[in-house]
Amino acid sequence: MAASVDASSSSYDRMKEVKEFDESKMGVKGLSDSGITSIPQIFVHDPQTLSDLKPSSNPTAAVIPTIDLSHITSPAHRPDIVDRVKAAAKTFGFFQVTNHGVPVSFLDETVNAVKAFHEQPLEVKAKYYKRDEGKGVMYASNNDLYRTTAASWHDSLQMWMGPEPPNVEEIPEVCREELVEWDLHATKVADDVMELLSEGLGLERGRFKELTFSDSRALVGHCYPYCPQPDLTVGIKAHTDPGILTVLLQNHVPGLQVRHENEWLDVKPVPGGLIINVGDFLQIISNGEYKSVQHRVLANSRKESRISIVIFFNLAKWREDGYCGPLPELLSPHNPPIYRDFTPQEFLENFYGKGIDTKSLIQKITIRN
Fold first, then answer.
1. pTM, to two decimals
2. Dihedral sign, Cα of residue 182, residue 187, residue 190, residue 192
3. Exposed (0-12), middle (13-18) or buried (19+): which is 322, by Cβ within 10 Å?
4. H/E run at residue 283
5. Do 358 and 238 touch, CB atoms closer than 8 A?
């Protein structure tokens, strides 16, 4: 653990190292490809974070649910699917869906396209490297690099697909066709799942769609390259997603873990499956019925890069009074609000004012009795 001790010494200028790394535009993929045998200090995490970084060793550990959507339009089967989705969102906050309508061959093509982008030479990727998180297309390492106390071992290609899609020509050609199509497929899956979640709350099937829950979308293609010291850093640190819902496609390289009943569970990819998880926003608007849960990615000790393609679905239009909070139709004298209403400014300041974290907005708006 000497590196973590060194990282806090008075001679260590963290911000100088961060700036040098950022301005190199090489990302952690560039560091990994250069053949380094030890990671820079800016990536070393504190002993508390590092203390339990390991794959699950409990053979009886729970497994996040896998839900078959093949009979989603069947009146006979749909109520059972609604119940299963509701239970998964309430208990685990994570689940996988199969038979979701997206061809498995296209899932593979999308993963390969994102991998191809990250495997391009530095000089090709560098022209996309910037820090402009709120719009357009951005390639960078760690979106919270300047806001966090320790960087994580991943690079990301990020683009906002809605409500205002980017100029298609801005998307790197090597993955352009696949990501534009993936946005359409993933949004259809998200809309299907949101209908099930809406019904699970006793609401009309199209209520979430009407509230623009899938209109604001950020697509992120993560690369977790080989890390020479995976016991000193993380792929992405433990956090909850701030938005409504997340749809994730990953390759076969492991690393994703979900926190459940004080234990870290490995999420093993199901062939042809997509991972769905509840965001903080959905926990709030459901008045705590659905739960966002901590998840993280371990640093990759394999020579092959871990690839994941994520779409974060967010609210596009807030209420006319400029606020959002638990849906009024879910509240009653027997089910009073447990969260106060909040503004877009509060939401954005909370996210962009620090590194990624766990339920910090929820903690701020919880009504204390």
1. 0.94
2. negative
3. exposed
4. helix 280-285
5. yes
